[in-house]
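re: ur question from earlier - yeah i can do the single chain one, its not a big deal. heres the input i used so u can compare w yours
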Amino acid sequence: MPKSKFLKLAVVSALFALPRFSNAQSQVEELFLNGGASFSYSAPQSQLYPAPSYETDAALTLKAAPSAHYLDLDGLDLTDVPAAPEDGSYEDKNDFEVLFDWQKKRTPEQCAAARAEMEHSFKIFFGKISPFKAPEPAEVTTFFKNVSADSVAAHRFIKDAYKRQRPFLRDTRIKPCVFKVGGYAYPSGHATISRLFALILGDLVPSRKKEFLTRADEAALNRVIAGVHHPTDIEAGKILADVLYKNLKEEPEFSSDMKTLKRFLSK
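and the output i got, formated as tokens:
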């Protein structure tokens, strides 16, 4: 069956499999299956991997998913998100080269940082550098949970469309140093949500935008270092975050809530 036809069928199937998310849901489908071992390697957490060069798949112009919170994902244009790399393609092989490289040189500290971010929520990603008053106001907590619902619905839809397995399931030489997680790999939910939060924070506090985006990049890269995501999963998650934020800013309710959030910023 041609790839395009297969992907169209996969997308349609995902529509029926994707559950609706409550406004309070802040976590994704990833389930912790079993523990991984730590490694004692030394290297700075500064390596960047090259951007992928694969093509966008037109199948994602089909209806995406039920409404989450701010966004009605039915009909949302996701064509900016590239198709998952084919098994054995140049991009796929490069993914594993990067994974093996990190596996050789990652440090216990890097693995510990990745383990601390197994769940993804605003507090996990940005609690230490939050620009909001402490303790975190309920309005802030609710806002980011609502944004998470949109992100989860979108990235789960794409995961179900491509069904890319985790790297450690595809090659047993990959040894995660965090709990092995269930669910599909492409795109990374951690990369999507952390960048989406960073884009929001950057608009609320423009002087700290670079800081927030750097923190999101660190959280996303930790998933590669830990061995539970391919680099192209991360790249796709970041692109998806950009798409979602562009659409969120066009929603009146979201814009109104963003204005409300400014009242809770620290002086």
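DSSP finds ten helices and two strands in the chain. not sure if urs matches, ping me
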